[in-house]
C-alpha cells in the first residue's frame, strides 16, 4: 500500500516535533510539513523561549541566538535525516535551515535523492 503525500507530511510533522522535544528539550507550538518536488519543507512556529526573544532586541543578541540554535540543530541533523529516511524511504542529500528571531519561526528544508512522484 502506497502512502499518500498527506500522510507522509503528517508523519514528518509528528516526527520532527518529537525530535525537537527529545533532542532540544522543548518542542514548537506548531509544525507544518510540505512535500514539493524533491524537497520536504518543514515550518516550525514558536520555537524561541521568552528569554531568547528578550536577547533578540539587538544585533548581537540576534546573531548569538541564530548561531546557537543553528549549531544545536546541526549537531543532531544526522538523527533527524534518519527519521525522515525511515518515514519516506528517501535519502537526504542536503539540509538547510534558518530561523526568524522576530517571529520565532524555523524553516527546515530537506532535499531528497529523487523526488516524490505525483501519485503518492
Automatic annotation (TrEMBL):
Highest taxon above the source species: Bacteria
Domain Na+-translocating membrane potential-generating system MpsC, first and last residues per copy: 4-112
InterPro entries in UniProt: MpsC (IPR018745)
Record protein name field: Na+-translocating membrane potential-generating system MpsC domain-containing protein
Amino acid at each position: 500500500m502506497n502512502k499518500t503525500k498527506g500522510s507522509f507530511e503528517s508523519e514528518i510533522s509528528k516526527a520532527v516535533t518529537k525530535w525537537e522535544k527529545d533532542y532540544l528539550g522543548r518542542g514548537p507550538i506548531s509544525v507544518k510539513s510540505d512535500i514539493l518536488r524533491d524537497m520536504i519543507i518543514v515550518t516550525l512556529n514558536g520555537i524561541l523561549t521568552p528569554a531568547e526573544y528578550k536577547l533578540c532586541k539587538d544585533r548581537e543578541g540576534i546573531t548569538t541566538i541564530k548561531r546557537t540554535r543553528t549549531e544545536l540543530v546541526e549537531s543532531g541533523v544526522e538523527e533527524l535525516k534518519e527519521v525522515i529516511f525511515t518515514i519516506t524511504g528517501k535519502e537526504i542529500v542536503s539540509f538547510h535551515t534558518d530561523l526568524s528571531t522576530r517571529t520565532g519561526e524555523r524553516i527546515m528544508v530537506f532535499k531528497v535523492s529523487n523526488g516524490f512522484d505525483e501519485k503518492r
